[in-house]
Amino acid sequence: MTTLAHNMMKHAAVLLLLCASTLCLSACGNKSDKALQDNSTATENSADMNKMTKEYVKQRVEAIYADVFAAYIAANKDGTIPKQNFDKKYCSKAWNNTVAAIAKKDAQHPDDMPFFESDYWVRGQDFSSELAINDVKVVELNGKTAIVEFSLHNFSDNLEEITLVFESGDWYIENFIERDDNPDAELNWMEAMDNYLNE
Predict the structure, then answer these.
(1) What is the Rg, in whole angstroms, of the alpha carbon atoms belonging to the chain?
(2) How far lies 171's CA from each of 97, 111, 114, in Å?
(3) If you placed Cys at 175, which of 62, 82, 163, 180 could pair as Cys (CB 3.0 to 4.6 Å)?
């Protein structure tokens, strides 16, 4: 065998050994990356499962309204309305998409009365400095949907129902329903928005 052929075989053997080492290291790295990803997903799923209880949903609703009402009460002292976008912060993607569609339709008819004549957060056009929710009850928790009822105080007490969905790692409001002793006086906001958009 010539020296040239012998050297070429040695180089080929070294190259083959390097390729095999690289593949081995890559496979090991992929396994550790996958293990880290699996652990991260398991941790997220575990955290999500801790939020799938009626007690957590109740606390989430109370925390949402405490934050919203604190801003409204502070604004009421100045005679203004809150500047925060609580829909973006606490409502679902579907709710926000529907509200955006309402704003777009309203903009096309500037001379008409806008759709939102009252505020679903406070259930009225005006709001007092004694906004509160009481008797919060999770009446249904089914997978990633929850229905919660409570008494909303704004000048007087009224029964309110909200539907929440679990998305982006927490519960977000998908609908507000203003209950009334007279069913004809009840207001289902999502249904009313859909009807307006389909007129």
Answers:
(1) 29
(2) 17, 37, 29
(3) 163
